[in-house]
Specification:
It is built from five helices and no strands. It has helices at 6-23, 26-40, 42-64, 68-86, 89-116. Helix 2 runs antiparallel to helix 5 and helix 3 (42-64) packs antiparallel against helix 4. The longest helix is centred in the C-terminal third of the chain and has 28 residues, at 89-116. The relative contact order is 0.10.
Length: 149
Amino acid sequence: MLAVNDHLFALEAAALDLVQALKNTPQYGHYQLASKQVHKDTELGRRIQAFQQLVDTYEEATRHSKDVSHLSALRQQVLACKKQLDLHPAMVQLRYAEVDFQKLLAQVTQSLAEAVSPTIFVDTGLPLAAKKAPHPQGIYKNIKEKDQR
């Protein structure tokens, strides 16, 4: 059972302060601006909607169709449409802003983890960051620390 005391309120206040500090960073500002640009672009919005409809069509076809050539053609259309979306300048800026903000969040998470123990491994989710090995099966083997193999 969770004990509600001054320590809990202090943790909650610190968490809210951290969130506010993160919202005041340039990385968050760039992310917000890039996100607004994507939502403001009506042509890009139509492309995203068309892509989503194509994905829905493909998913429906994979559930009900046995025709491999039809599925392959649909899959190629989905991939081509996705590539067009990914290369749109507003989407490129949004992805860069997302990665920059994610790097900041990873640094904060790493600092918090090191405050508890310097051996805690933090999986940042960043594409080029070190990956975490799967946990071994069995009793008392569910904690992985980065200096132990």
